[in-house]
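Forum: Protein Structure Q&A
Topic: Joint prediction for protein chains with partners

I've read a bunch of threads here and the consensus seems to be that you should model interacting components together rather than docking separate models afterwards. I'd like to see that in practice. Below is the full input, 260 residues plus whatever partners are listed. Could one of the regulars post the assembled result?
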Amino acid sequence: MNYNIIAYSIYIPTTIALSIWIAKSLHKNTKAFLVERFQNNESLASSTNNLIQTGFYLIAFGFSFMKMRIRNNAHYGSNDKLIYDQLISSQETIEELAMKLGSFTLILGLLLFFNFFIMLLIQRPKRQVQQVPFTINEPNK
Amino acid sequence: MYQIIAYIIYLSISLITVLVVGKNLHRNGKEFLFAECPDENLSTSANNFLYIGYCLVNTGFAFYFLNSADSITTLSGIIEFIATSEGIIFLSLGFLHVLNVILAPRIISFFLSKKLNQY
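Posted by a regular:
Agreed with the consensus. Here's the joint model:
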């Protein structure tokens, strides 16, 4: 059991839990904006909300997995050979993990604002929703 | 041996992801496209076209990126290979999907605008 696998086994659950939490809270809070944007069409708003959430999950997981690999830690091994891409002490593990998790949290924050931007870019439907006109039945004279 | 295990895990994860996400988008996108065009048949067929194109592009992408630069000899090598290549697949899926959500209604309404103006 080397330090790399320990670092990965901490990094993967943390990032997955973080992105699921952020996506859940986004899904809860975006709906009001979308309902306003789509002229009170609830089902259209909820399906668009699901589409946005799927995009968020894909991009967040993509970033977290793509940036996971540990690089550029060259050490001298036991018989004076250079070892690359390996953590050798618990201190290095903590430092590396902190840097990776911090950069991932930064990316998640940027992604949240990107999500707002996407919401602005989504087009209002051209077709007006059929609404029953509110009329008062006047008494026949 | 490690290489083959890594390839099998990578391919199964990415193909399952493509199919599951595609199903999800196909289900949710129907309403989204129906808001644009008044014709039910037209929106359903546009949705099916988008689904087929999505599946083809991403399956091709997943198979195309199946190579590792250096040989895999350890367990952490397997984890690194799978995570890095899955990350690239997920990111490209995500950007393609966001682009689709933004552009598909615009394209449809662009093609329909002339027809709608006649009424």
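Chain B has a mean pLDDT of 84.
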